[in-house]
Write a structure and sequence with these properties.
Blueprint: E1 2-3, H1 14-17, E2 20-23, H2 25-28, H3 39-44, H4 46-52, E3 56-59, E4 63-64, E5 76-80, H5 87-99, E6 103-108, H6 118-125, E7 137-138, E8 158-161, E9 166-169, H7 184-199, E10 204-207, H8 250-262, E11 268-271, H9 277-280, E12 293-294, H10 298-301, H11 307-320, E13 328-330, H12 339-343, H13 345-357, E14 361-365, H14 430-434, H15 440-453, E15 461-464, E16 472-479, E17 482-489, E18 495-497, E19 505-511, E20 518-521, E21 525-527, E22 532-537
Parallel strand pairs: 2-3, 2-14, 3-6, 6-10, 10-11, 11-12, 13-14
Antiparallel strand pairs: 1-15, 4-5, 7-9, 8-9, 15-16, 16-17, 17-22, 18-21, 19-20, 19-22
The structure holds alpha-D-glucopyranose.
Alpha-D-glucopyranose (GLC) binds near residues 208 and 335.
């Protein structure tokens, strides 16, 4: 396999060469000591973000919300929740980020609102009202519920409204009623929301659950558990839901959203989509008129973390990309177990090296640059509404670890953080890692800086090199005749490989342990377990 981009490094759109950094605002930095992170906190830490060498931040929702799903239940799309600050704080953040050359992406939540949003309050008030059809209302079925659809958070996806005698659909929490995307007024209203923020200079959106927006109009029952044609990793949420997933007509909405973004210069749309790769790539749209980057969660859902499985994944994904489409990669987010815990501390740097050297835009999750673990929060004290399914996401959302003092520098010693700080903060924190030239943080910065220095790592082609060792993944990134080789050992043993088919040797640009440097020979090259090397090939 060899995949090459079609443009030169100078003319690539910013989001193709960028590193995106996801901030979960509740957990990044608390600027007013109430135990919850906020915009002021982020403003105060912009220098940290700049020094990370990332190019864009995506903020999980900051809009007014009753917080039933921590902001993914929006009660006012154009207002900032007072917990996070106000519009003035947001403008300061936007201007401050832009002054540092950092773009700002907001989280657009179009599938559902909060039940406290005025649209839903009106919709619920009477069967005849003009906003009734903005949401999905159904009469009771013979056995009560309109059909067997289940909420992603557990239990039926329907809630009865006693006053009007109908059920409304909520694919998530009952406080998150689904909007009716077949109603043109709903579409128009959501596109207005997009314009509202784009007019203010926001650089784009991450779009929440984009593949779920349309529902089957016949409201037929979904197949029961065990009746799915999908298996394993394709069944991301554990259940096959043809009634709401990737319905015909969804591409028309995706194209409409793109047209809104195209009314402005240099904006980007990134969509949250959990689908098998052949269906995922359709969201690039016909002739790339869909979203710019349908999130590729392949590395998150991969059942085995091995060199072979990763190579197969990358090849299948690259092969499925439509002509000219730009790839992207993710290791984690606020919904998923943290990478450090998933692959183990020893192999987590190799995972970061992979993310930051594969072809395509990487999205990094706050704290992963430090090697923050997935925190062990007992189910009895879980705050996440998804706990009903037994899979709380709180462990991925604990406060950012800034230093070893009380509150971990996330909040003051006297306030209680909204989720407990992970005990690892005593050793895994920004302050400690700032002073250690071999820290995870130093390693992360080295990689982001390398990406800026070397076009091979951004716009360059990618091709795999056969390492003849099942644990060792090796690929070349190439640009205008100059080549960078990446070698990663995902196994438990030291591996010795011969990569002389590439060259006789090269210069180490970055090693996972931050100690190995200098020239390296590609014949009989030893790589420790969990080790990775980025090598400049000098012919
Ligand atoms: C997305 C978000 C998740 C949220 C859900 C409902 O999957 O990432 O956090 O709970 O949508 O909005």
């Amino acid at each position: 396999m060899r995949v090459t981009a079609e443009h030169d490094s100078g003319s690539a759109p910013w989001w193709q060469t960028a590193v995106v950094y996801q901030i979960y605002p509740r957990s990044f930095a608390d600027g007013n000591d109430d135990g919850v992170g906020d915009l002021r906190g982020i403003v105060d830490r912009l220098e940290y973000v700049e020094r990370l060498g990332v190019d864009a931040i995506w903020l999980s929702p900051i809009f007014r919300s009753p917080m039933a799903d921590f902001g993914y239940d929006v009660a006012d799309y154009e207002g900032i929740d007072p917990l996070f600050g106000d519009l003035t704080d947001f403008e300061e953040l936007l201007a401050g980020a832009h002054a540092k050359g950092i773009r700002v992406l907001l989280d657009l939540v179009p599938n559902h609102t909060s039940d406290e949003h005025p649209w839903f309050v009106e919709s619920k008030s009477s069967r005849e009202g003009p906003k009734r059809d903005w949401y999905i209302w159904r009469d009771p079925g013979p056995d009560g519920l309109p059909n067997n659809w289940e909420s992603f958070f557990g239990g039926p996806a329907w809630e009865l409204d006693e006053t009007t005698g109908q059920y409304y659909l909520h694919l998530f929490h009952r406080k998150q009623p689904d909007l009716n995307w077949r109603n043109p007024q709903v579409r128009a209203a959501m596109y207005e929301v997009m314009r509202y923020w784009l007019d203010r200079g926001v650089d784009g959106f991450r779009i929440d659950v984009l593949w779920l927006l349309l529902k089957d109009e016949t409201f037929a029952d979904d197949p029961g558990p065990g009746q799915s044609p999908l298996t394993g990793p394709e069944l991301v949420y554990g259940r096959f839901r043809p009634g709401c997933e990737d319905r015909p007509g969804i591409q028309e909405i995706v194209a409409e959203m793109r047209r809104v973004a195209d009314g402005y210069d240099e904006r980007v749309l990134i969509g949250e989509i959990y689908l098998p790769v052949d269906r995922l790539v359709r969201y690039y749209g016909k002739e790339l008129t869909g979203i710019h980057l349908p999130f590729n969660f392949g590395l998150v859902t991969l059942p085995t973390w091995s060199a072979t499985a990763i190579r197969d994944l990358v090849e299948a994904y690259e092969a499925a990309l439509p002509a000219g489409a730009w790839p992207n990669w993710v290791l984690g987010n606020h919904d998923q177990p943290r990478i450090t815990t998933r692959v183990g501390q020893e192999r987590s740097r190799a995972a970061q090296m992979l993310l930051l050297t594969l072809r395509g835009t990487p999205t990094c999750y706050y704290g992963d640059e430090l090697g923050m673990p997935h925190s062990d929060i007992p189910d009895e004290v879980a705050l996440d509404p998804q706990i009903e399914t037994g899979r709380s996401r709180d462990g991925a959302r604990t406060p950012m670890q800034w230093y070893a003092g009380a509150g971990a520098g996330f909040t003051s010693a006297s306030s209680t953080p909204w989720l407990p700080v992970d005990p690892s903060y005593a050793t895994i924190n920004v302050a400690a890692q700032e002073t250690d030239p071999r820290s995870s943080l130093a390693f992360f910065r080295r990689l982001t800086h390398l990406r800026r220095e070397r076009a091979e790592l951004t716009v360059g082609s990618i091709s795999f090199v056969d390492s003849h060792h099942e644990d060792v993944l090796s690929y070349l990134r190439e640009w205008e005749g100059s080549r960078i080789l990446v070698v990663l050992n995902f196994g438990e043993q030291t591996a010795t490989v011969d990569l002389t088919e590439v060259s006789t040797g090269g210069l180490i640009l970055c090693a996972t342990d931050m100690t190995r440097e200098g020239l390296v020979e590609l014949a009989g090259m030893a790589i420790q377990p969990g080790q990775g090397l980025v090598i400049d090939i000098r012919d």
